[in-house]
Amino acid sequence: MSTFTIFLILIIIVCFLLILVIMVQNPKGGGLSSSFGGGGSQIVGGVKKTGDFLDKSTWTLSILLVVLILASNVALKGNFSDTDSKLLNGDGIETVVPETVPEALPEQVPEPASSPADSL
């Protein structure tokens, strides 16, 4: 497995986790925190701490996603350095001349046919 493939798998996992964390949250104070009873401090951890955890995990996963994308870009550039230089130097390019190209142009060019729109 190449380094880029490892980064790609990690990016996909982080994306799925980020989707799950965002879908669990509710912008109006509901979501996972309200499903624990919605009442207050009788719950272990409390509603406020659940919201804080989801908020911190969203930020952490989004920062991790950006870092993984930047790292995969560096890994991707490292894999293609040889092929880029060959193409830029013209070493790997083959030129094929088609055999249907006429050797000379015709001496007389036929005039275009007139249409009813030309007479207006």
Overview of the molecule:
This protein is mainly α and 120 residues long. Helices cover 57% and strands 0% of the residues. It is built from four helices and no strands. The chain has helices spanning 3-24, 32-35, 46-79, 81-89. Helix 1 (3-24) runs antiparallel to helix 3 (46-79). The longest helix has 34 residues, at 46-79. It is elongated and about 85 Å long. The mean pLDDT is 74.
Largest sheet: none
What are the segments in which pLDDT stays under 50 over at least 5 consecutive residues? none
Give the overall silhouette. Answer: elongated
Helix fraction bin: 55-70%
Continuous helix count: 4
Return the structural class.
Answer: mainly alpha
SSE order, one letter for each helix or strand: HHHH
Tally of extended strands?
A: 0
What fraction of the residues are assigned to beta strands by DSSP? Answer: under 5%
